[in-house]
Amino acid sequence: MILSSPDRHILRSTLMLIKKVLAGLGCTGFLISQVSVTDRGFGGPGVEHAADGIIQLDLDEFQGELKRSIIVWKMRGTGHSMRRHPFNITNKGIIVYPDKIVKITPRGFFEGGESQ
Predict the structure, then answer these.
(1) In the chain, how long is the greatest CA-to-CA distance?
(2) H-helix or E-strand containing 16?
(3) What is the pTM of this model?
(4) Residue 98 dihedral angles phi and psi, to the nearest 5°
(5) CB under 8 Å to 82, separation ≥6 — which residues?
(6) List of residues 6+ apart from 112 with CB closer than 8 A
(7) C-alpha distances in Å from residue 77, one per residue of 38, 80, 83, 111
(8) Is the pLDDT of residue 115 over 80?
(9) When comparing pLDDT for 14 and 37, which is higher?
(10) What digits encode the pLDDT tens for the residues 22-31?
(11) By the 8 A CB rule, do 87 and 68 touch?
(12) How many CB atoms lie under 10 A from the CB of residue 37?
């Protein structure tokens, strides 16, 4: 979807208002956005600026097997890993493996320890 400049301004203003209201209530809000694999960016104009944190969950196919990975692109006020990590979704929740990293290259999907 292509938004005109006035629409982008309204969207950004609305997002900033939601952020202020939630912060004023002492609440943490999770806004979920789906982006196409061909898109670069996160959820449209202004979202990157309004969000305190951006976490991307990926599902990639390699040799007929689906692999999950997570990367924290942005998290204001805290240090975080700048690497992509594998994760699993279980009946007990999401398990992230911080001691492992994932590399996705044109030659494939590689998973290994931090030292690789």
Answers:
(1) 48
(2) helix 5-24
(3) 0.71
(4) -70, -20
(5) 72
(6) 100, 101, 103
(7) 30, 10, 18, 29
(8) no
(9) 14
(10) 989 998 888 7
(11) yes
(12) 7
Answer yes or no: are the C-beta atoms of 101 and 89 closer than 8 Å.
no
- Tell me the C-alpha distance between 95 and 99, whole Å: 12
Greatest mean pLDDT among 5-19, 55-69, 77-91 lies in: 77-91
3-class secondary-structure state, position 8: helix
**Domain range list for the chain:** 1-51, 52-116
The conformation of residue 24, written as its DSSP 8-state character, comes to H
Name beta bridge partners: 54.
74
**pLDDT higher than threshold 70 for residue 46:** no
Among 79, 90, 86, 82, residue whose Cα is nearest residue 104: 86
